[in-house]
């Protein structure tokens, strides 16, 4: 398994980027942050700014409005409000907000697309045979 | 209700949906919960499906699916898949898309104004037939022997033998001799 270089710029760091919410870890990014590489995280991620690479989490993924993501996303509940380019896997539910723009294949158990969102890709719905990769 | 009998392959530029209703309103077609469609449907206007469709749907307006649709769907404006709806589409082309929580959606999704084809683009492209021009060499054919000619098969049916009517032998009844006459 090749782990690419992960570079955190701006205000994001392991200290101020990670907060506890309801006893669960959350990695939170700000609009000026940049994440490049591969992130495997036991918790939830709030993605903002620019993300490139791969993000696999056991919790939820939330892509903020205005964020630019070119990455593979995998989480339990994935909520997109920004622009995402890449495959998305939601073990439970994928929600595309009205400003979301997703270009990539998705595999979800449940799907909600709000009016105004844009989706281009193949959609597969159903159960999952593999869980979140926490390795 | 004016049902268009034109097939996608033969139709021309589609007028604006707002102008094709008989009373000036937008045409709307509803397939009820007990309705079922197998085949291809093109609607100039809106389409609501709460029944079952196996085939292709195309509408110049909105399409709302609360039933089950199995096939390609093209909505020039907006596609709504309701919470109880199911769309198993090989190819879904829409300008706008709304999927409610609980809906089932599977297939290739193409969105945006560029994804929705103009009516002419819907026409199935004719398959190019490559005809190679091969020079035809005409050779004088030698007179074929008569033996090559297939002889017409003569069907010889078993000749039915004419049934000869058997003459019924008439048993001549001999007159009873009277003993008394021969002497």
Written description of the protein model:
The complex is a heterodimer of chains A (135) and B (183). With 135 residues, chain A is an all-beta fold. Chain A has one domain (7-125). In chain A, 0% of the residues lie in helices and 59% in strands. Chain A has a 6-stranded parallel β-barrel with strand order 8-9-11-13-12-10. In chain A, strand 2 and strand 3 form a beta hairpin. Chain A is globular and about 30 Å long. Chain A starts with 6 loop residues before the first strand and ends in a 10-residue tail after the last strand. Chain B is an all-beta fold. Chain B has a domain at 22-117. Helices cover 2% and strands 33% of the residues of chain B. The N and C termini of chain B lie far apart (116 Å). Residues 15-21, 120-124, 153-160, 168-175 and 177-183 of chain B have low confidence and may be disordered. The chains are: A mainly beta (135), B mainly beta (183). The interface between A and B is medium-sized, with 17 and 19 residues. Strand 13 (118-125) of chain A pairs antiparallel with strand 9 (104-111) of chain B, so a sheet runs across the interface.
